[in-house]
């Protein structure tokens, strides 16, 4: 790994300032960035740790929904969101393993936007709002394809606000070696309709399965999606599964998520 | 080089590190505490698990400077004050929870974190919690048995000796 200067600010303002330096990059839980730097796929000259910023941590229920600080580790979301938004807490509690959950954070996961990551499905499936140091970004505008987001250079996610649905569930088909999602589906039923977000499956990253959404919005039951067919054209094919296999999983997991929703 | 100070196994320690110095490297090379093992160095195997402020973390995936001011516990801190093996360590020995022993420091530290959160886990809970700790020798059965025994549960009916 190339060497760098390490700074650990205690406020968002200081972090934003530090990130304006040439070659600076944010570090949250480091569960993705550290291995990436070891492979020399990233070589920042300044690393700005976000984990010492108290205003970026914690889980809090407010008027517009459940707000989670970007530097909140998965394990804390699993514990503290459980009574407010059980499907989200369960998703956080199923990421990786305990040591990954103690360090990895929601902000890091969303900034990275790995096509097989879990949180993007919850954020898109809930129609959540990604809050940065500059603006608020609706989930539908935030995710822009594999490892690509609406974030600008030097912009940091400070938190995420989730509207809490009537019922929701996330069902993940584990890729057992990496513990990421081979395919994962987040289903959320709101008063105004149902949202279905799929991760792990598409070459375009997390996406909404709109056909599934309209079928479930008129009839929220597993049977509603049984007759639908998911197009395999844009799906990922690799040694773990063909595009057709993943397309099939989307439907099967959606059905399971509907059955599990509470 | 930057000076870093933290508490390791109850003792204040400090040393000079680079930005890129990993916590695992600081422990092993800076402090000479080689009980923490490096297996994969890619956040997959769990051999390097230590506790930082009471939480199990992979020390190969945390920078030493990010642990500045923290309280770190390593396998060297798991023995009893008189130097005899701690409860979890003794259970691993009694139930053959190790063969080559390479994964054992991480296994013991993850198990200690589990038992702190959940003092009487079921077999399934032990297996689930240890998902991030890879062992290429034992086949896991005796590790799980050791953890159950360390929690004070009767393991006489648990298979695989
Ligand atoms: C063994 C293992 C298993 C895993 N399994 C899963 C899984 O099942 N599901 C899953 O979803 N994930 C999984 N992960 C990934 C894990 O959830 C990571 O924690 C997460 O993807 C990245 O979060 P982080 O806080 O560690 O970010 P970091 O690694 O610190 O950062 C990742 C990227 O985001 C940027 N960044 C970080 N925070 C911010 C911010 N607030 N604003 C702007 N940019 C920021 C960084 O600059 C970097 O580019 C796994 C990881 C490992 C090692
Ligand atoms: S050496 Fe750290 S996880 Fe393998
Ligand atoms: S005892 Fe050899 S790797 Fe576990």
UniProtKB/TrEMBL annotation, chain A:
UniProt keywords, alphabetically: FAD, Flavoprotein, Oxidoreductase
Chain segments annotated as coiled-coil in the UniProt record: none
Cross-referenced PROSITE patterns: FAD_PCMH
InterPro entries reported for this sequence: CO_DH_flav_C, CO_DH_flav_C_dom_sf, Diverse_Substr_Oxidored, FAD-bd_PCMH, FAD-bd_PCMH-like_sf, FAD-bd_PCMH_sub1, FAD-bd_PCMH_sub2, Mopterin_DH_FAD-bd
Record GO terms (molecular function): FAD binding; oxidoreductase activity
Stored SUPFAM superfamilies: CO dehydrogenase flavoprotein C-terminal domain-like (SSF55447), FAD-binding/transporter-associated domain-like (SSF56176)
Residues covered by the FAD-binding PCMH-type domain: 1-167
PANTHER family, A to Z: XANTHINE DEHYDROGENASE SUBUNIT C-RELATED (PTHR42659:SF2)
UniProt protein name: Xanthine dehydrogenase family protein subunit M
UniProt source species: Paragemmobacter straminiformis
From TrEMBL, chain B:
Domain of life: Bacteria
InterPro entries: 2Fe-2S-bd (IPR002888), 2Fe-2S-bd_dom_sf (IPR036884), 2Fe-2S_ferredoxin-like_sf (IPR036010), 2Fe-2S_ferredoxin-type (IPR001041), Beta-grasp_dom_sf (IPR012675), Diverse_Oxidoreductases (IPR051452)
Gene3D superfamilies hit by this protein: 3.10.20.30, [2Fe-2S]-binding domain
Keywords: 2Fe-2S, Iron, Iron-sulfur, Metal-binding, Oxidoreductase
Keyword presence, Iron: yes
Signal peptide (residue range): none
A GO molecular function held by the record: 2 iron, 2 sulfur cluster binding
The 2Fe-2S ferredoxin-type domain, residue ranges: 2-78
Annotated protein name in UniProt: (2Fe-2S)-binding protein
Species of origin: Paragemmobacter straminiformis
Lineage of the organism: Bacteria, Pseudomonadati, Pseudomonadota, Alphaproteobacteria, Rhodobacterales
């Amino acid at each position: 790994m190339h060497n760098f200067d390490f700074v650990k600010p205690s406020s968002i303002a200081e972090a934003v300032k530090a990130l304006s330096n040439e070659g600076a990059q944010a570090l949250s839980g480091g569960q993705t960035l550290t291995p990436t730097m070891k492979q020399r796929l990233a070589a920042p000259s300044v690393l700005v740790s976000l984990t010492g910023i108290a205003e970026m941590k914690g889980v809090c229920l407010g008027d517009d929904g459940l707000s989670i600080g970007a530097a909140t580790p998965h394990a804390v979301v699993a514990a503290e969101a459980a009574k407010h938004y059980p499907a989200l807490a369960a998703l956080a509690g199923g990421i990786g393993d305990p040591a990954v959950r103690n360090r990895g954070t929601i902000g890091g996961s969303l900034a990275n936007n790995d096509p097989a990551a879990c949180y993007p499905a919850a954020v898109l499936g809930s129609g959540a709002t990604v809050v940065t140091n500059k603006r608020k970004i609706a989930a539908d505008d935030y995710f822009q394809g594999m490892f690509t987001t609406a974030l600008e250079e030097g912009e940091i996610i400070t938190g995420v606000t989730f509207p809490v649905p009537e019922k929701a569930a996330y069902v993940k088909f584990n890729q057992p070696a990496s513990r990421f999602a081979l395919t994962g589906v987040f289903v959320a039923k709101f008063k105004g309709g149902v949202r279905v977000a799929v991760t792990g499956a598409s070459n375009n990253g997390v996406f909404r399965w709109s056909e599934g959404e309209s079928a479930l919005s008129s009839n929220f039951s597993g049977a509603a999606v049984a007759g639908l067919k998911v197009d395999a054209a844009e799906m990922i094919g690799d040694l773990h599964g063909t595009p057709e296999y993943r397309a099939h999983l989307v439907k099967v997991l959606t059905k399971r998520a509907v059955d599990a929703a509470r | 080089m930057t000076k870093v100070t933290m508490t390791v196994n109850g003792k204040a320690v400090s040393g000079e590190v680079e930005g890129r110095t990993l916590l695992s490297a600081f422990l092993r090379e800076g402090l000479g505490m080689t009980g923490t093992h490096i297996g994969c160095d890619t956040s997959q195997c769990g051999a390097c698990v230590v506790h930082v402020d009471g939480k199990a973390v992979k020390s190969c995936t945390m920078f030493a400077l990010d642990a500045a001011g923290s309280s770190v516990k390593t396998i060297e801190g798991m023995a009893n004050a008189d130097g005899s093996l701690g409860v979890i360590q003794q259970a691993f020995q009694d139930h053959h929870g190790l063969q080559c022993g390479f994964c054992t420091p991480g296994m013991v530290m993850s198990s200690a974190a589990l038992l702190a959160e959940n003092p009487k886990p079921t077999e399934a809970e032990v297996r689930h919690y240890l998902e991030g700790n890879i062992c290429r020798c034992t086949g896991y059965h005796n590790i799980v048995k050791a953890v159950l025994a360390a929690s004070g549960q009767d393991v006489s009916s648990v298979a695989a000796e």
